[in-house]
Please model this.
Amino acid sequence: MADRETTRTISVQASVLDKNDALAARNRARFDAAGSLAVNMLSSPGSGKTSLLERTLSDLAESVPMAVIVGDLATDNDAARLRERGAPIVQITTGDLCHLDAAMVAQAIEALPEPLARLLFIENVGNLVCPVAFDLGEHARATLMSVTEGEDKPLKYPAVFRTAGVVVVTKMDIADAVGFDRATAIRCIRAVAPDAPVIEVSARTGLGLSEWYNWLMKGTRRDCVNGDTRR
Amino acid sequence: MLRSESVAWPVTVEPRRMHELSIMESVLEMARARAAEEKAARIHKIVLRIGDVSGVSLDALTFAFEVLARDTQAAGAELVVERVPARCRCGECDAVYEPADPLAGCSACGALRGSLIQGRELELSSLEVS
Model:
């Protein structure tokens, strides 16, 4: 039995995420040393992260070396889709964990071929809440929302939009069919992410993709990556 | 461009669970290490500082604590959570304010360009040990 007379209070004052943050800093240093731009892709499940990446891997194949680290709860379906495009893909099966952390990404980096690709995508687990707190060492976060999700998504999940370096609105080809209210959506995004560029795209028709590619290519030259991805 | 060989790429990382569980695992590991430094056998109280916009569910955290602390030196310990309110600095007028909700503008000038300066804390603040 504990003797309450001898109990004492000790101060700790340490961040629970210190370990993750230290590993993230190491990942970032690794990317920097290799001249790689790392983009953490965040969205709900089914918002089109994989489709946008598939298209990007094809369209930029001749312009820049790319690689993908993809997190998935249970299947390797996304990795299989991306693998068709010829770029190195590392799949992280997270089991029932709802986010990627810096340690997993560090492990995935080891599996990528050297030298590291100039443009490295990290496709996070489809989830708008849990991944937000975990810095992976990325240079920027790309937060996606599709036109089918409801224009107020940014108001419901402000943190994932607030930390975005770019907001990508996907599936614009079906915007009219689903009654997407563009003005409201932009207003909601602006309310929580006043400074991030907003890019409207359709991976199917190619609409807006040149703007997305410009953002990426400028990022690889390090003159326009914005957004504070650190906590 | 780089080409992948048709090797089995997938890297499999040890599966874990919801993030409150991994956060609590870290808390208990930090507490265990600190208690060992103090040569303490038992942990009676764990005090955390959790920001209102840290993205952590307190219910899930409490549940994780109860499950993980069982059969450890922290079994039966009291978990105290000190909440840290969100605080922003206005990007227009530099005022510091506590937004009532995540979308509230600056209390001085109404601008929506606040940057968060407090509220994402996830800290192990102190322990009571013997």
Notes: The radius of gyration of chain B is 20 Å. The first helix of chain B runs from residue 19 to 37. Residues 19-85+119-129 of chain B form a domain with the hypothetical protein PF0899 fold fold (CATH 3.30.2320.50).
